[in-house]
Design a protein that fits this description.
- The protein has 154 residues and is an alpha/beta fold.
- 38% of the residues lie in helices and 18% in strands.
- It has a three-stranded parallel sheet. It has a two-stranded antiparallel sheet with strand order 2-3. The chain has a two-stranded antiparallel sheet with strand order 6-7.
- α6 links the parallel β4 and β5 (115-119).
- It is globular and about 55 Å long.
- The protein starts with a helix and ends with a strand.
Length: 154
């Protein structure tokens, strides 16, 4: 529970709840109104809302039905920031973003004061990282016979 308060996750395919866009970004929010406005400005929230039929009151279905993948990723990003995390995990968030969404992501990365962990295949985004880890697919499983000291490929 205490760890969950310190970490927020945003990414493509993050679950959004049935309700309004405004309700989705305020869920779990731990910021005051001034901080909320600062986050909304960094995330160019007004630009996103101008493309939705009813702005912040646009109703979406479970999982973000009714939003494009890029819009849903941006809503998930704003919601994560509203939780005021010390650690922000971004899981392939860049995959569905258009140029404006990528500019928002850059602004968030420039202004975030905590630690950001990014999972991405985008070399441009990887280049922004201080430390990079590459996770390769695992090799085929092997087992060994301790008696014979031999390796047996599975």
């Amino acid at each position: 529970s205490s760890l969950r308060r310190l970490v927020a996750v945003a990414g493509e395919g993050m679950p959004l709840m049935r309700g309004t866009v405004a309700h989705n970004i305020r869920c779990g929010a731990r910021v005051d109104e001034d901080e909320a406005q600062r986050i909304l400005k960094i995330c160019r929230w007004d630009d996103l809302l101008s493309r939705l039929p009813r702005g912040a009151e646009t109703r979406i279905g479970a999982g973000g039905a009714g939003l494009s993948a890029g819009q849903a990723a941006r809503v998930a990003l704003v919601r994560a920031l509203m939780r005021r995390p010390l650690v922000l995990i971004l899981d392939e968030i860049d995959r569905a973003l258009d140029e404006e969404g990528r500019a928002v992501l850059d602004a968030v990365l420039d202004s975030f004061e905590g630690t950001v962990l990014i999972a991405s295949h985008d070399p441009r985004l990887q280049a922004r990282c201080d430390v990079r880890w590459r996770l390769d697919p695992p090799s085929p499983p092997t087992r060994s016979s301790p008696e014979a000291g031999e390796r047996i490929d599975a």
